[in-house]
Each structure stands twice: as structure tokens, then as C-alpha cells.
Write a structure and sequence with these properties.
By secondary structure, the chain is of the alpha+beta class. The protein contains 8 helices and 4 strands; from the N terminus they run H-H-H-H-H-E-H-E-E-H-E-H.
Length: 259
């Protein structure tokens, strides 16, 4: 990023120098009509740069620069104008310092625009996997975090459980269920230890450093919290728990099990 900023700053400096050289040369010359033609060429070049694609604008400006350089050389050697050769050289240098940075600056903007467009597409594609309103993880995030946590648990000789929470009956829409269970689980888990992911009408919770009785207590707290949100004496939930031994296999078993 710093390198891009340095390049952009350098281009702006060259662009400014080009303008300064051609204005200074014009002010010191008595042939104003000739410089009007020069600035007309600059105007045409700017239009080509702005309207054409980077590829074709580069080709067009290259051709114009070559033709303009050849024309100035012929004028200088033929002495067909009252502008001295030094002024002609300065004009050509100013033209190059004007159009080349402008092409590159537009290329930088064009490239940045494409990058932003690609990033927006990536963000849109990720939105379906990420819940921006809560702590529910995607499967990849869940697996990555579990891998890190399990290393620490292994060093401390702790055990953990995977708990699958599923809806036993129909009648609650997927969206309503996901929002409800996510909110309730967030209020039930130990935020510093436990985390969860969702899929279809189920949620899998990683319960760290606990035992079978701890899992049962979590289930009871979850049921009590759900009763505060839905009108069920016994919320229609089904629990499936598994002591973590081989994490990948245990997770896959819970995902594939029928609820």
C-alpha cells in the first residue's frame, strides 16, 4: 500500500512539473497561436485517456507522442517557426510529463475500481455464510476455533463435548428458529469458553472443559431460557451429545445424524 501511495505521489509531481514547464515556455514565447495548437493536442489526449480503455488509450497516446515528437523535430530543423529549439524540446518534455502520468493515474484508479468491485462480490458471496448480527460461527470458523481450543484442552488434560440442538417438530420457520435459538444460546453459553455454529434447523455447540453433568445443566438452562421466549411447557428440542475424542469424525457424525 505504501509503495502504491509513493508511486501515485510521484506521478502527481511529474504531472505538476509538466504543467509548469509548458506554461512557463508559453509565457516566454511570442508565438501564442502555436501554443494554442499545443494545448489543443493536450485536450485531445486527455479526452482519449478518459474515454478509451487503458489499453487503447496507451496505444493512442503512444502514437500521438511519436507523431508529435517527429513533427517538433521537423519544425526545429527546418526552423519553420519563431519558437527556438529549446522551447520545442521543453514543450515535448512537458507533453510527455503531462500525458504519461495521467495515463498511469487513470490506470491506478481503474485497477483500484476493479479491486473494489471484486471485494464487493466476495463480501456478497460471504454474507450467506456469516451472520452479522450475532456470534454464530460458520462451519469453517467453528472448525478452526475448535482446533485451537482442543490444543489447549489437550495440554491441560481437559475434556469437551459437542452438543447438537435440533427442532423436533415443524411449525417454526427456519429464519424464526435460527434467530430465536441463536439469541437464546448466546445468553446460555459461557462466552469465554463455549461457541456454536448453525446448519439447517440445528445448532452444534462446543462445550469446553465440562463433563456429562455439565452438558445436562446446559441443556436445562437452555430449555428454561427458551420457555421465556416461546409458549411451550416443554420446548420441542432434541439433544444429541458426544464426548470429543476425534473431533472431525465426531462433528461429521452429528451433522449426518437424523434428528
Amino acid at each position: 500500500m505504501t509503495f502504491k501511495k509513493a508511486n501515485f505521489s510521484l506521478l502527481l509531481i511529474l504531472f505538476t512539473i509538466g504543467n509548469f514547464v509548458q506554461i512557463s515556455t508559453a509565457l516566454q514565447s511570442s508565438n501564442s497561436s502555436y501554443f494554442m495548437w499545443h494545448w489543443s493536442l493536450l485536450t485531445v489526449s486527455v479526452i482519449l485517456i478518459l474515454l478509451l480503455s487503458p489499453k487503447w488509450s496507451f496505444i493512442s497516446i503512444t502514437m500521438l507522442a511519436l507523431l508529435y515528437g517527429l513533427y517538433l523535430c521537423l519544425l526545429g530543423y527546418a526552423q519553420a517557426t519563431d519558437v527556438n529549439q529549446l522551447s520545442l524540446i521543453l514543450l515535448y518534455i512537458s507533453y510527455l510529463l503531462f500525458v504519461i502520468p495521467l495515463i498511469l493515474i487513470r490506470h491506478i484508479f481503474f485497477h483500484t475500481k476493479n479491486e473494489l468491485s471484486n471485494l464487493k462480490k466476495e463480501i456478497e458471496s460471504l454474507k450467506k455464510y456469516i451472520d452479522p448480527n450475532g456470534k454464530m460461527l460458520t462451519k469453517q470458523e467453528f472448525v478452526e476455533r475448535s482446533t485451537i481450543v482442543l490444543r489447549g484442552m489437550k495440554r491441560r488434560e481437559e475434556q469437551g463435548y459437542l452438543l447438537k440442538v435440533s427442532l423436533k417438530v415443524n411449525g417454526i420457520t427456519d429464519q424464526a428458529w435460527n434467530e430465536l435459538i441463536q439469541r437464546v444460546i448466546e445468553d446460555t453459553i459461557r462466552s469465554d469458553y463455549d461457541f456454536f455454529m448453525g446448519f439447517e434447523n440445528s445448532v452444534i455447540v462446543f462445550l469446553q472443559n465440562t463433563h456429562n453433568q455439565g452438558v445436562l445443566k446446559f441443556q436445562q438452562r437452555l430449555i428454561e431460557n427458551l420457555r421465556k421466549n416461546i409458549n411451550f411447557i416443554q420446548p420441542p428440542l432434541q439433544f444429541q451429545q458426544k464426548l470429543i475424542e476425534q473431533f472431525d469424525e465426531d462433528l461429521q457424525v452429528l451433522i449426518q445424524e437424523e434428528t
